[in-house]
Amino acid sequence: MALRVEIDNLQKATEKLIKRLFTEGVVDAVADVLDENVIGFSPSGHYYSRGSWEVKRFLQGEYERLAPCNISKIRSRQFVREGQLSIESHVIMTSLQQRKLLLLNITTMYRMVPDGFMINGINMAFDYDREKTYKVLTEAAVSDLDFLASYDGATGLFNREAFCSRAADMMTDYPDKSFDILRINIERFKVINEVFGEQQGDKLLNYIAGFLKSIDLELCLSARLYADNFVVCFESAEGYAEKLIYTMQIVANSFEISHHTVLTFGLYHVDDKSIPVST
After folding, report:
1. Can you tell me the distance from the alpha carbon of 125 to that of 260, in angstroms, rounded to the nearest whole number?
2. Pairing of strands 116-126, 34-41
3. What is the pTM of this model?
4. CATH number of residue 25's parent domain
5. Residue 62 and residue 43: Cα distance in Å, rounded?
6. Residue 184 maps to which CATH number?
7. CB within 8 A of 97, min separation 6: which ones?
8. Cα angle, residue 218 at apex, residues 215 and 224 outer, rounded to 5°
9. Backbone angles phi, psi at 128, to 5 degrees
10. For 83-120, b where at least 16 C-beta lie within 10 A, e where not — what string?
């Protein structure tokens, strides 16, 4: 499947693919337009791959190594060198997993086909030399460092401090609405880590976090407080808290592990919004 855009729009289309890859993990968006004999180079310069399947696996690995990510700026230019049409993109982003600001240079090489363009080469390299300069001089760096300070690096949820601040703001902004706060704990999580390994424990944390991120409510905040403790603040609605508790226990039970995962819950209805939010 080719990337069906006019050549004048190829630069914007490339930036969109980069955003989808690193912020959403939609590897297939890129994989669908890879040439069969595409070549990929890793950011470290030590990994080389050839073929659409190998390059797709390489891109998936890079996303998992850095995600979750926040892209604050992309600057691109289009050029032709030795007959090769390429888009060079300079990306400023933060990696929550690595807890730092990253500058990434991506060169995407294209081959023209009858119905559009196919990617026949991807080269990624970290821009280490300019990282400190960007941290000091760019507004994007400042905003990204603020972003980094608000999130839990392991799950991508808000951290405790950000949750308390934003939950208080949400309640202040909607004085006529009532709210519930639900605290969630994974029972015997230490045992899970010891028996099945910390890697499996981390997967369980992200499994729970993934569900919390998927809650589709207009007024809702979720966070990881610490260890295996999570919290959700949401607009009160009859029967919703009970439904949420029931669904979360089903989600926990569906985690693929030879252990019955049990969650414990504590529900608090906010009667007095003047009391500071603390956990």
Report:
1. 44
2. parallel
3. 0.59
4. 3.10.450.50
5. 9
6. 3.30.70.270
7. 65, 66, 67, 68, 153, 154
8. 45
9. -70, -35
10. eebbbbbbbbbbbbbeeebbbbebbbbbeeeeebbbbb
Q: Is 153 inside a domain boundary?
A: no
Instruction: State the Cα–Cα distance between residues 145 and 149, nearest whole angstrom.
Output: 6
**pLDDT tens over the chain, length 279 residues:** 788 888 899 999 999 999 988 887 788 889 899 999 999 987 555 567 889 999 998 888 888 888 778 888 888 999 998 888 999 998 888 887 777 778 888 999 999 999 899 999 999 887 766 655 455 445 555 566 667 778 887 888 889 999 999 999 899 888 899 999 999 999 999 999 999 998 899 999 999 998 998 888 889 999 999 999 999 999 999 999 999 999 999 999 999 887 889 999 999 999 876 766 776
